[in-house]
Amino acid sequence: MSKKVPLYIDGEFVQSQSSQWIDVTNPATQEVIAQAPCATQTEMAQAVASAQQAFLTWKEVAVSERARVMMRYQALLKEHHDEIAEILASETGKTFEDAKGDVWRGIEVVEHAANIPSLLMGETVENVARGIDTYSFTQPLGVCAGITPFNFPAMIPLWMFPLAIACGNTFILKPSEQDPLTPTRLVELFEQAGAPKGVLQVIHGGKEQVDFLLDEPAVKAISFVGSVAVGQYIYRRGTENMKRVQAFAGAKNHCVIMPDANKSQVISNLVGASVGAAGQRCMAISVAVFVGSAREWIPEIAAELAKVKPGGWDDPDAAYGPLISPQAKQRVENFITQGVNEGAELLVDGRNCDVAGYPHGNWVGPTMFGKVTTDMEIYKNEIFGPVLCATEVDSLDEALAMVNANPYGNGTSIFTASGAAARKYQHNVEVGQVGINIPIPVPLPFFSFTGWKGSFFGDLHAYGKQGVRFYSETKTITARWFESDIADVNGPNMTINLK
Ligand code: NAD
């Protein structure tokens, strides 16, 4: 019998009374390894009530004590790093190295959250008028909620709840139903780190459970990461219900390759950034834009890409694992067929990919198209698989125009030896995260994760200073004290003479 994933309500791991359960499968084998419940209305109401109650005391806990919970949590996550990565690999199919990276990037956000006393500092100006001072405090919002995708089951929950809770909020997490075991382990360790009862709650499920959070008046802020269609829906419904919402969505990330770029760096970086993690990264490079004579490198890149091998999580030679589900595999293969039908040149075909020992895995081999144009469906859609589309232009201006016309704006990069070309690109490109000779420019948590355009709906981004602002309110105080009111508190001989 497969394991039943518990809910985490009011400081207890509890088995749901739900009649609806979702199978969690190992994508390399199709083995059902667990079942996640669709939390009932009663269970979700209990989670909200507990989070509301816990907020009343947690917001009063000294900020340095809140920071210490994060320090202990960071140490526990590091201690259990490999064990969490193994759980993660079992439900996502990621290779062990990739799974460890997923956990590590989450740990970095917890480290950032441990700096909460300085992150919360407000501003002060003395004598805004004679004898009047103005200063601001950063106060928590209340109950916040997070809805996370399948592709980073450690990193993305850790983008959310540690910072929200360090700010003094309480938090309800609704992880992806496709890989809920990793978040469950993260929560067990959070409890072990000394997080008080009720500060964090976990409900499982899908649309119905998300809708509950979107409509529940006690939930003040929603963080979402996932696909564009769901992100737009969540942003609209959440803001209509007067909530603060940040929704990080899908992407189509371009890498511009100038003819003066370091060729061997381009080849190795492009291969890793396009098919690594089976292309299931919101910052994966899915379009390579070859400028001028750089197009001559396309055959060599295709040859390198063809050598990349997917495989099982513990195979040290495997570059990446299977796709998350048979449906995801089918979707990617359909796009490959569509690309052929719409006239792109299939340079490397990843369909019908077999991996020894895993006959039932959701494998798609590395795939590369040449002669892709911007009117093709394979260019317009986020394929979310190990598929690289090569396009060709004659100038940096043309490359910029292509990237800026694309509706997404998560990440982009340029490979060049020219500072002037890089400067022009970084300044003019309408994308939120730019790499210069860096293929996947995900910022460390002391910056913020700043997708633009169709890749983000909201105002304040994840982690960094913006993350703190998202999970808090600013209170601005203007104060005046009258000197004539100073009392003789220390007895007759200690009177302060202010005259
Ligand atoms: P998804 O949108 O299918 O699911 C994300 C979450 O939304 C899950 O928790 C799911 O249960 C919930 N959900 C699904 N359908 C829903 C509906 N109709 N109504 C309400 N909630 C619903 O996304 P996914 O497939 O899990 O993740 C992959 C997507 O996430 C890709 O598009 C990827 O680009 C994106 N992503 C973006 C970022 C970023 O920072 N921009 C990071 C990681 C992933």
Using the coordinates shown, work out and report the CATH topology of the largest domain. Aldehyde Dehydrogenase, Chain A, domain 1
Helix content: 25-40%
* Overall structural domain count: 2
- First-to-last CA distance: 83 Å
Average pLDDT, all residues = 96
Principal-axes shape call: globular
Largest sheet, if any?
A: 7 strands, mixed
Cα gyration radius (Å): 25 Å
Oligomerization status of the protein chains = single chain
Strand tally is 23
Looking at CATH, the homologous superfamily of the largest domain is Aldehyde Dehydrogenase, Chain A, domain 1
Number of helices: 16
CATH secondary-structure class of the largest domain: Alpha Beta
Numbering strands along the chain, what is their spatial order in the largest sheet? 15-16-17-14-13-19-20
3D structure, described in words:
The chain has 499 residues and is α/β, with parallel strands linked by helices. It has two domains: 3-249 and 455-478, Aldehyde Dehydrogenase, Chain A, domain 1, CATH 3.40.605.10; 253-436, Aldehyde Dehydrogenase, Chain A, domain 2 (3-Layer(aba) Sandwich), CATH 3.40.309.10. The chain is built from 16 helices and 23 strands. It has helices at 41-58, 63-79, 81-92, 96-113, 116-119, 155-166, 181-192, 207-215, 228-240, 263-275, 298-306, 326-341, 377-380, 396-405, 419-428, 464-470; strands at 3-4, 7-9, 12-14, 21-25, 32-37, 124-129, 132-140, 143-147, 170-174, 200-202, 219-225, 244-248, 253-257, 285-291, 345-348, 367-370, 387-393, 408-409, 411-415, 433-436, 452-453, 456-457, 472-480. A seven-stranded mixed β-sheet has the order 15-16-17-14-13-19-20, with helices on both faces. Strands 10-9-8-11-12-22 form a six-stranded mixed β-sheet, sandwiched between helices. A three-stranded mixed β-sheet has the order 1-5-4, with helices on one face. A hairpin with a 6-residue loop joins strand 4 and strand 5. Helix 2 (63-79) packs across helix 7 (181-192), helix 3 (81-92) runs antiparallel to helix 7 and helix 10 packs across helix 11. It is globular, with a radius of gyration of 25 Å. The model has no long low-confidence stretch (mean pLDDT 96). Bound molecules: nicotinamide-adenine-dinucleotide. Nicotinamide-adenine-dinucleotide binds at residues 147-152, 174, 176-177, 206-207, 210, 225-227, 230, 233, 248-251, 282, 382, 384, 410, 451, 455. Nicotinamide-adenine-dinucleotide (NAD) binds at residues 147-152, 174, 176-177, 206-207, 210, 225-227, 230, 233, 248-251, 282, 382, 384, 410, 451, 455. It is an enzyme of class 1 (oxidoreductase).
